[in-house]
Specification:
two-stranded antiparallel sheet; alpha+beta; 51 residues; single chain
């Protein structure tokens, strides 16, 4: 997945004390994308587990 947002929105969401990863996700649009051929190759080369 990738998250899209503006720098200003991300700064507002994460600059306060106690901010969490969830705060960053809340100000983002999440998009599910396929893996790139480069990532697929690295998974094969390094024998990383597949999701």
């Amino acid at each position: 997945m990738i998250a899209l947002t503006s720098l200003e929105r991300m700064d507002r969401a994460t600059s306060r004390p106690g901010a969490t990863f969830a705060d960053a996700l809340e100000v983002s649009i999440l998009l599910e994308v396929g893996t790139s051929p480069v990532l697929e190759r690295m998974i094969d080369i390094y024998d990383w587990p597949r999701p």
